[in-house]
Structures are given as structure tokens and as C-alpha cells.
Amino acid sequence: MRREVDLPRVDLERPGRSRGGVRATAPAVLLASALLVAGCGLFGTDASPGATGAPGESAAVGHPAADLTGTVPDVDPSILPQESVAPMPAARLADGLVPPTNRWFSGLVFGDEPLPVFPVPLAFGVTGGGFAFGLPDVQVTEQSILGPYVPQVGVDVGASSVVVTAYDTASVTLDLLDGAGSVLGAVTLVEGSPVLRYTAATDQTAALTVAFAATDGLVSTETGGRDYVLVGADDTLSGGGRSLDLAAGDSVAWFPVPDDAPDGAVATLAEAAAHPVTGTTLAYGVADDAVTTAITYETDGEAPGPGTVVVRLPHQRESDGATCGLGTYATVRGTVDVCTASTLAWTSPAVEPAGTLDVTGLGEDETTELAEQVRADASAREAGSLEVPSDTYFGGKALARDANLLALAEQLGLDDVAAPLRADLAAALREWADPAGCAERDARCFVYDPEVRSVVGRTPSFGSDELNDHHFHYGYLLYAAGVVAADDPALAADLAPVLDLLAADVAAGAGDGDFPALRVFDAYTGHSWASGYAPFADGNNQESASEAVSAWNGLALWAQASGDTPLETQARWLLSAEAASARAYWTDFDRDDPAIEGFGHTVTSLVWGGKRDWATWFSAEPSAMLGILVLPMQPVAGYLAGDPERIRANLDEALAGPRDDPASWDVMFGDQLLLYAALAGPDDAAAALDVARTLPVERVDDGNTRSYLLAWLLVHATA
After folding, report:
1. Which of 356, 418, 439, 617 falls between 20 and 30 A from 118, CA-CA?
2. Separation of alpha carbons 66 and 10, rounded Å
3. Mean pLDDT, range 546-572, rounded to an integer
């Protein structure tokens, strides 16, 4: 059943230059007609520091629907030692703004020099006297889908430096400064928009790298094989079309003409592009069968009914609120539709959080086999064979592994195994959650870094002290806590002060000064970014999309265990949205999309702002390319199912030989690939089970046990 949802009016603020670092914007009002989702309540945020929200009531979900400020309640970073484990790099950031780590534009902010960034579909870079941009010309090789920054239009206003002065859900404001630090003008980058805007702060002449001319009522140029339209130039063009004479307050914008644009489309786009985007806001909704993401592009108030120019990505095809059919662009994510919209809203299939693999339906023989393996793994753990590391990543994986073993032991009625394992896990979680832990030791504890506004483990790994991969690491800890404390309110209460801080670090709903809003999650692209400072010319990146899904599953389980309904709702949205994009760009993308024709693989294991690679950070093994996209195969991993032939094709590429040869699975992540194979169907699960029983022990991942491997395959083989 579909019905309209009464949407709350949410008053939001965008961080900016005035009022002590906060610039107010108009209230974000989302159109109910664009968001018809059964049982769906909407929550709004501008995903930016300083946001405030006016609560409204949503009958659909039965609890307040405000901004996300309250989704992680009563967090207090001061309970942790205040310490910078690693210094924050130089930052081109206005005073009062929370450092925007793990963003698509982080490379523009951090480091000695600003790096190119990729506000889809454009690529943008800072130049010696100003800026340049272009629509990447996608090049496809056997191993990569490349869309690098290649400047096609450049603008020189004599700037000496730049500083980010505002950002929100999908837009960034960058001020260009002269040698004395005075503002010459501002550039607005909008994710999901092909329009780039510059507004002059002084009377000036801006030099252009290419000449523009008026033709058929439009000012345009051809460069790099692409036509670009200049909007708002009016009588400001001079110097043979190679300069703009701008007065203070004048604003101009550019956009590339789409491919396959029908008659009249360019004029429609020019009309919409004439009205500047002043900010963006976010709302989301959660229903039993789907979640909704909605981004509103606020304009100057004079935009025509269709709104501004946006592009609709492949994972956004199930969308409302946009008028498309205006052409397409080829991007590294595939072919994108060019549209006009005030609010771009789309749905993703709902993924149910899960922390327990249900083995209660197994037969007697299967139950006996599994119980024997659980006892064997418990004995190995007690003997020290299952290592318990002290860093936040491998330590978290070990806790999640043992939590899964506990869930199996309890379901099988193995009280002599379950009782000591539960006690050990509770003690280990309390150790990690001791606020004063880092005052006493250098491992299994956390500090709060007041400079970068983040919770950081004292024993870092994979650059976690540089804000890398926090959602991967903390997701495992939240998962273990959610499973172990599910029926233990006293334990949940003991863990809450620090576990809520971990949740806030990666998923705080709205920036409050202590944390940025949604540190890692990019609402427009539908997935997270793993690099803290993104010191790369290809933008930010994420490798293990499956660990990002696992993180939001862990967040949801922790919210359930701690009784935090708003946080659980937010986590369900994050979980479902990340799962949809993981399939759309990592494991199940459309191989027939002409934009990526020629790519020779079935998965892309590393997705950047400016490219997608069949590569990992740690191994060139084919099994690693798929394994890193499916681990840790927790009970929630059923989201990867749905296309048995694609699963088999992905495995054929990853394995050392035919799927029916047990030796083929003797590869890195062999156990994870066996778990994934079971999603192709009961026969595939039964075949994988035969292999799993004798899989070499070194092929069982350190975040897994043979008990869980067998349990998963037994359950799926009898489904």
C-alpha cells in the first residue's frame, strides 16, 4: 500500500562565514508528492556542522521526525583523554567549521596543496590564479574505468590562495583570496550538478582559457570535444570572449552540453542554471520494504518550477521529483541522466539488520556436526589459537567473530561453551569501553582528538589515526556490542558512554561542533568514503563496500541493544542505502552500460571519485578483488543475493580454477568466497559445504570461524 507521508518542516542552517561560522538558509520543505513510500517517515538534516532542527511528528513512524541531531544522545567526548594521536594536515578551512574528513572534497581542504575533486559529473581543480574544471572524458581499460581531472575551462582572477568557507550535504563554497587575504570571489561546487558557479566579490576582470561567443541566444564554446555554455555573462564578455568584466556581486555559471540532448534541452538547462544553488539539504525515510533518500537543491528563490540542473546516477533510477530526458553524460559510474529538479528523491530496497544466523531449523545430523565444530573452535580460542589483537580493526574483527560463535553456541544449547564465552566477551567489551582506558594503557582504548573532532583508537591500523576506515573498524565493535548486549541491559548501559561516541564519530546526524554530520557517508552517491584526508589526485575512495554495509548493520544492532530508536532508524537508512550502492558500483553493476564498455572484469574492487579499479590496496590476487567486497559475510550479507548467475560469474573470475574443483578455493579469502557462493542457491551452498569441511585452516579469515562457515552453508543448503 502506498500513501502520502506528512513531512515535517525542518529548519536547517548551513555553515558559512557569518554569525560566528554559521550562515542561515531558508527552511527545507520537501514535497510530499515526490516521496510516496509506504510506511515511510522522513528525517532531515543538512549534514553539516551547526545544524539545528525543528521537530515534527510523523504518524508513519510514530516518533519525532526532526533533523538528525538527536540520533546519538548525550555523547560527551570529554570523558575520553583529549589527545591528537597524529597531527592534522594543513587545512584550507574557515574558522568555526568542523574539519570535513572523509568527504568527496577532502583533498581540496587538507594537505600542502589543494587536489582535484569530483563533484559528479564534473572534475574541479585549483590553479595558480583561480580554478579550472571539465567533464571527464571516460577512458576504459581492461583494469580500470578512468575519468581523471583534465581542465577544459579555466578562470584566472589573480587569486593567491583558497579557503573552504561553507559546506553541507552536497555543496561546497570555496573562496578565492588575493595576496592580502581579501576575498576576490567564491566558487560553488554542487555534487550531482553539472553547473559550476563563480560569484565576484569585487570589481574585476576574470581571464578565461578558452574564448566564448554568443550563438543562437546562448554563450558557448567548444573545448576538449565538448560544448560548454556560459550563463549570466550578458555584456561582461570582452577580449575576444576570453575575459569577463565582472562587478562585485556578479555571478556566472558554466555547464557542459549533455550527450543526446533533444531539441530545446540546452535552453531549458540554461534557464535552470541561471538560478544559483544556495545550499542543499537532506531527508530520509525508512519503510518495511524500502528506504528513501531525498536531496533538496535550494536556489535563489527565483528558479523556475523544474528547479536546478541535476544528474541522476544509476542507483537513483527509482526516483521521483526529477524531470529527465534532457540528455546524458558518460561517467566512471556509468551513464547518468541529465534532469531538472528541486528535490531529487530515490528509493533503495530495505535491508533488515541481522546479528544472528538462525540455525534452529537444521536437522539432527547437521546440528550434531555444527555443535562439534563449535566446541572445537571454542577450545582453539581458549588455547590461544584464535588471536585477539589490540588495534581497532583486527581487535574489532576478533570480537565480532567471537560474538558470532557465541550466538551459535547459545542456539545449540552448549551452555558450557556459551557461558564462559559470554563472560569473556563482556569483559573485553567493557575494557574497550572504559573511558579512562588510554590513561592506563596504549591499546584497546580510545582518545578524543579535539583538533580533527574525532574518536581515535590509541593503537591505530590502516591509517585510522589519519581518520581512515573508522566506519570499518568501529562497525565491528558496534556489531559485537549489539550482539552480546542484545539481552543484557546492564552491559549495554556500561558500554553506552564510549560506544555511543563511536557511533557519533562515524554517523552523528548533524554536526554539533564535537563531530561532523555523517562523517563518512555521502548521501548523493549513496556510499561512504574511507580516506580521512583524501591525499589523492583521483579524489577520495572506498574499497570494502561490504565492510561499510557491515558497519551500518553493527550500528543498527547497537541501537537496538541500547534502546535508541531514532539511531536505529538512521542506521537502517544507512544500511539499505550503502547496500544498494555496493551492488550498483562494486559487485553487480550493469556490464552493458556503454559508458564502461571495454572493462574486463565483473567487479570493481576500488571506487574513487575519478576512477574505478580492479585492484586492491593489499593484493593483486583475483580472489582479493571479490573477497574484499563480500567480507565479513555477517548474517546481513543476504543483500548480495538476487542474481545467481552474476554471483557465479564473479566467483569464476576470483577463483584459481573451476568452481567444482576443491583446490580452486584454496585462495585468499577462500572462506568468504564459499559463503558468498551459497547465495546463488541451495545446490551451490551444498557444493560449497563439501569444500568448506576440508578448507585449509589458513584460508579461514581471522574474523571468521569454521563453525560460522559451516553454519552459513548448512542453513543455505537446506533453504
Report:
1. 617
2. 7
3. 97
